Fold this protein.
Amino acid sequence: MLNAGNIQYFQHGESTPQSDENGGAEVGIDHTLNDSIPARYQDGRGGIDLEQVRRDQREARRQVLQWVIRRLRRL
């Protein structure tokens, strides 16, 4: 059974709490988002290289379709 009472929701622009390593200080959402962007998707200007994201998404879709086709052929 799902206990929905423990779910926390964050709105865009809210600060997210950091661990006690920083003395309970909070870091803004923009800072945590920049740290969470993998290096392969960073464009060198602090943004996201959307073309690389799209290429990776297309490749992932292609791989899924190939897997589905292989599974269907086994049936």
Summary: The beta strands are 16-17, 26-27.
